[in-house]
Each structure stands twice: as structure tokens, then as C-alpha cells.
Write a structure and sequence with these properties.
single chain; 240 residues; alpha/beta; Rossmann fold; 2 domains; six-stranded mixed sheet; three-stranded antiparallel sheet; 8 helices; 36% helix; 20% strand; globular
Amino acid sequence: MDHLRRTFPGGIEAVKDVSLQVPPGEFLAMLGPSGCGKSTLLRMIAGLDHPTGGTIHRSQSRVAYVFQDAHLLPWRTVLRNVSLPLELRGVTAAQRLTAAREAIEQVGLADFAHRYPAELSGGMRMRASLARALVTDPDMLLLDEPFAALDEITRTSLDVQLRNLWIQRRMTVIFVTHSISEAAFLADRAIVLSARPAKIVLDVKIDLGLERHNALRGEPEFARTSRLLLSALEGGGTPQ
């Protein structure tokens, strides 16, 4: 992203002069106050929205997007929901169902492949949504606060699972969240955005090791990282 801007009709400026490079295979967390433009920025990265000014170049060709709501089709089983992207691409039934079963197993839902969304908990529905994104074998995964509506135990469990999936696949991940703890736990780099219009006020590497477990959240280095992110959020000061 090079001097990216996004202004909506009526003069509402959502993103102002954001320049950012995300190397392939990086796990980047994007933090910022409500309404600051995080989702707008993510949608522009995905190609779902277009900048008013500046340029954006995406080298990765296979991009998957996970929304805050699971958006599962209620009349389709988990297996058929997960296989849907491949069905729309014209992949044969045998191939897409095999790929869907593998993705479902990766997110720990193998025993629920033939259940319908109404039969699943919120955490299970989000796992199914994640499997639906993974079934396309993306080299870039974009997530817009996917675990925000879940209880803390489910959320931290999914954080561990997502981190492990990233270690296995090494795709580029950009994860939007309001949670300082989630950003510190998941990412190897975090940016903090100011209140609208979004500007980068902090861009920091997070060095807490490759494999992470929930016990990490009680470690002093985790607390120091969290304080750094909190200070940037509270300050919202001059962009770096």
C-alpha cells in the first residue's frame, strides 16, 4: 500500500495516507478503535473496495476472506458449506468434497461434517467459516474480527488453532481485531491505527516465539507487548 486513501460520499474520510508493506508469509494484526477504518482497509486489500487515492498492489493470487459473522447457508451441511467455493469454481464433486473434508478436519470439525449450522455452537460455526476459507488453499487469508462475538474460552482456543494453522501453511495473514491480547498472541507484527481517518501510529514486531500456548498470556514479555499496544491505542498520536 502506497499513500492509500479512502473517502466516502459526503466527505467522510476513512483512511488517510496509509503506506504499508506486508511480506509473504507474515502474520499481521491490525488494531484500532471502533470505526477507525480497519475494515475499510481490509476490504481494499481484498479488492472488495477501491481506494480514492494512492495505490495497492497484491502479489498473492489466491485470497480468502473471513467475516465477523460466519455467513453459513442454513440449508447446507457443514461439508456442503465448506465445499461451496470449489463448487462455484466448477471443481468436480469428488475433488471438492475431498478438499472440504480435509479443511474440516484441520479446524477440528470432522465429527460435525454432516450437521447443519443451526446444530452448531457459535465457535463451531466460525470454525466452519474458517474451513470454507482454507478449502481454496489461499496464499493470503484476511480476517475481519472473526472471533469478536465468542466467549473468552472459545476465543482463546480458536486463537491457538489459527496460529497453528498459520505455522502449518505459512500463508500471509492479516487479522483485524479490537483485542490487544488477541493481537499480541496471534501476530508476529502489529500495526495500530488512529481514530478515523485511519493513520498508522505504531508498527511493531512481536517476538514471542513461533509456537504459542495460552500460558504465554501470563508471561512478563506478553504483558510488556500488550502495554505497548495499549499505549499506542490510547495515545492515537502522531503517525510514525
